[in-house]
């Protein structure tokens, strides 16, 4: 009795082991998302590859936007076809380096999206037949293959007879994917040499410059206030300018004289009648020295726009020149120059001295 019980338990254990083995064989042990692939004929791509101990599962998607027209179809509208194992046009994996094919076992979860938005599905395709989807704009499926042997790194996913593929000719436009990456077996990974890691290179220390020591400042007594008065800017004294009435005794080329009694109102260039005696003195000197040539230089104070002051000083010297030429002096003997307020001879902060900067100077160019 005990032997029969033991034998029954042994049979049940063997049966359970037989059912469990296929489940263990189907377990996903490796996964490769978006594997590298060199090119695709007909449009579409492999989006994922999964591995069990005995199978390689390829997830394929074909979209109308990237798919080229397929001349093998006899329909004017869009159509896509999936071929089951054993069909002449079914997929297979081809190892070019080892010159070996790996067969398609079956195709699962075939899903087609039609132009009208409807969805057609085929659960499994495991016979040598074709599943055709008319007016399909997108199709996806998972193809189960024999797992390539150890050492295989790249395979081609070939949809038609390998004879056409080997010769480089196609009787149709297939869904071929080239140079699809294969993940190595765990044994291959275990035997692979670990990468050699180089020690990190330590950066060289930068030379440090000793800090510059500032001289110690003298301590300031508490509650004391140190008043620092900025030094006053000294206005350079102008070169001495002689009066015009000295012309008679010392008329020399290169010397500059000021018309002291020739003054102008602010922002004006008209000659006042009280200035005529000063101009008449200059006129008589130029008539006595018929070869004398002069330069009239016009100046203003610092009130207003500098550009306008230059224009004003030019009008003032032009007024003096007109007075002399109207009295008989040749215009060629008189040159003019305008400086605006750039060359003051007195302080511009007070009105009694500012008016001295509104002047006309005479420079002897030729005796």
TrEMBL record:
Keywords: Cell outer membrane, Membrane. Residues 251-367 form the OmpA-like domain. It is found in: Cell outer membrane. Residues 231-241 have a biased composition (Basic and acidic residues). Residues 195-205 have a biased composition (Basic residues). Residues 191-241 are annotated as: Disordered. SUPFAM superfamilies: OmpA-like. Its main location: membrane. GO terms for cellular component: cell outer membrane. InterPro entries: Bact_OuterMem_StrucFunc, OMP_bac, OmpA-like, OmpA-like_sf. This is OmpA family protein. It comes from Larkinella punicea.
């Amino acid at each position: 009795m005990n032997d029969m019980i033991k034998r029954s338990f042994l049979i049940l254990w063997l049966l359970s082991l037989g059912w469990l083995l296929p489940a263990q064989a189907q377990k996903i042990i490796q996964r490769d998302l978006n594997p590298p692939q060199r090119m695709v004929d007909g449009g579409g791509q492999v989006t994922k590859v999964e591995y069990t101990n005995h199978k390689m599962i390829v997830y394929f998607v074909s979209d109308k936007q990237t798919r080229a027209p397929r001349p093998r179809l006899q329909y004017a509208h869009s159509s896509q076809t999936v071929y089951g194992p054993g069909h002449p046009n079914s997929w297979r994996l081809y190892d070019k380096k080892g010159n070996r094919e790996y067969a398609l076992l079956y195709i699962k979860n075939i899903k087609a999206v039609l132009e009208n938005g409807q969805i057609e599905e085929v659960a499994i395709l495991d016979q040598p037949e074709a599943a055709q989807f008319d007016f399909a704009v997108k199709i996806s499926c998972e193809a189960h293959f024999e797992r390539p042997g150890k050492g295989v790194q790249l395979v081609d996913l070939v949809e038609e007879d390998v004879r056409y593929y080997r010769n480089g000719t196609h009787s149709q436009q297939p869904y071929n994917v080239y140079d699809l990456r294969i993940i190595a077996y765990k044994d291959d990974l275990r035997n692979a040499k670990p990468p050699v890691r180089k020690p990190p290179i330590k950066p060289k220390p930068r030379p440090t410059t000793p800090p510059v020591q500032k001289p110690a400042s003298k301590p300031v007594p508490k509650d004391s206030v140190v008043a620092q008065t900025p030094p006053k800017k000294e206005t350079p004294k102008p070169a001495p300018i002689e009066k015009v009435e000295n012309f008679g005794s010392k008329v020399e080329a290169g010397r500059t004289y000021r018309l002291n009694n020739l003054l102008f109102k602010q922002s004006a260039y008209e000659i006042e009648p009280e200035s005529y005696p000063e101009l008449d003195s200059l006129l008589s000197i130029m008539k006595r020295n018929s070869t004398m040539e002069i330069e009239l230089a016009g100046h203003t104070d610092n009130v207003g726009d500098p550009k306008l002051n230059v224009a004003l000083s030019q009008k003032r010297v032009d007024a003096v020149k007109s007075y002399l030429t109207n009295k008989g002096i040749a215009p060629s003997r008189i040159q003019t120059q305008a400086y605006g307020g750039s060359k003051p001879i007195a302080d511009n902060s007070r009105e009694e001295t500012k008016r001295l900067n509104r002047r006309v100077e005479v420079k002897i160019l030729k005796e």
